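tool_call: predict_structure(chain=1)
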Amino acid sequence: MTLRNSSGIQRGIATFTLDYGKCPKWLFDRMVMLGREMMHVIVAEEGPDAFIRRIGDPVWFQSLGTVLAFDWNASGLTTILTAALKEAIRGEECNLGVFICGGKGKTSRKTPDEIFTWGSRLALSEKNMRALSYNSRMAAKVDSALIQDGFQIYHHTFFFTKNGAWTVVQQGMNKENQTARRYHWHSETAKDLIREPHSGISSQIKIPNVLNMTANESEKNREISADLTRQSFGTLMKDIQLLRRYYSPLSKMVSLGNGEGKQLTLLELENKEFHTHPVITEDFSKSAYLEKILWKLCDEQPESYEKLLSTEGVGLKTIRALALVSEVIYGAKPSYEDPARYSFAHGGKDATPYPVDRKTYDMTINTMKKYVEKTRIPLPEKNKIQKRLAV
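tool_result:
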């Protein structure tokens, strides 16, 4: 976990070990009780918009989970904390001005319905409700299709206020390395939903060769990917066929005979950062579903890359196919750098991976102490939490 500036949200993703089993009822009930107290104090002090801005900060979110007594480095902190907060404000949403939708597994799929239910009760306009639902859906699509890091999204929670501020907290799991990764979004930093939209970074591991289509370095690839879908389906499929028939290890140029005694040379993929390029492991065999989606895109001709991604049916495979065509054939290399930054806590006492940021560390702890002091929980309980924060 990395704790960064709690007053200025940083970009990022948090990675934790996978948790199994259920949270004990006594602990969950305690988290609900304390979470209710903390939310009332924070909203009274700073307002509902400020509260969900803080939830969008993975540092602050992690600290809140620790205060509520959950294991700081367990994946369950994300799912249990959001569930506890949702339960804590049940029946008090309108008074607090904070609304929490979605959750883990099947509950996450109910997010759009919950947004519209609350929107109707708050008399929000149809336009505003659709905008909130769209932001929720696109956050899930971006983290499952544009950042191809091997983590499958299984938890999605959408926080919003009637003023239109919103935050997304979602988590993915990687069964291969037994870790989970948390993605944070906030409306202030996600003005562009497809260009580096996240609001905080912390991770215990980095994954090699992650296709990151949200990176600024992927801008040219995004442009060409969108351009590819604004031509005829037949023209696009000719490019796909090239990848299906011809690709080679990085040490060689790929030369294709065109039947007329001439040679067609594709992009030389040699690059110091790769031992092998991801393209050589791709399966470009015939896929009726992929071709159906590509035909749909060429028929609709999305005006932008965001419109392309938002098209129903477009997912990981479609994005990757277009990205590889754009790179291998047209030379627009996307970013293959994992957007997560390897880090731990506020830094390490041994300066690994960087020295402790004492100012940020103290700011985070002091803020939490202030909130705890103003809650109405019994003094012995306050003392326990203060001691935990002092460790």
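agent: The first helix runs from residue 25 to 46. Proceeding to next step.
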